[in-house]
Amino acid sequence: MTDKISMTIPNQAQYVSIARLTATVIANTLGFDIDEIEDIKVAIGEACNNAVMHGNKSSNITLDFQIHEGRFFVEITDDGEGFDFEEYAEPVLEEYKGRGLGLFIIKTLMDEMIIDSGMGNGTRITLIKNKE
Fold first, then answer.
1. Total of domains in the chain
2. For position 24, which CATH number holds?
3. Chain segment 11-58, per-residue pLDDT in tens
């Protein structure tokens, strides 16, 4: 059986903490340890921050959490301009200039990251963390 929890938050920075807290409760319920919960929380915060920065300010961010066979899934959707993920290049850490690490951080912390985005179509990012 798959349990699903959905929520919508305004596309504003002050509401990102609600998404992070919700993820914390869900991950804790699944029995993730404190380090795994922190990884999930940071990754979701980064994804939501990207939606706030690049999404449509007059719309919402939708989060769909799913729990299935010990796996934590969250799909985060915005209706911003979107981007071409094929053009994404991981940052060179020695040349870090203070921004642009969000996707790199998410990819590092989660077991899987799936991005569905296209110019003018918004962005949907799915993050998956396996219970070890």
1. 1
2. 3.30.565.10
3. 999 999 999 999 999 999 999 999 999 999 999 999 999 999 887 777
Structural domain containing residue 84: 2-130
- The arrangement of strands across the sheet holding 60-68 comes to 2-10, 60-68, 71-78, 123-130, 112-117
Quickly list DSSP for 45-105: HHHHHHHHHHS-TTSEEEEEEEEETTEEEEEEEE-S----GGG-----GGG--SS--HHHH
82 Rama sector, left if φ>0, alpha if ψ -120 to 50, beta otherwise = left
Residue carrying structure tokens 């799913």: 66
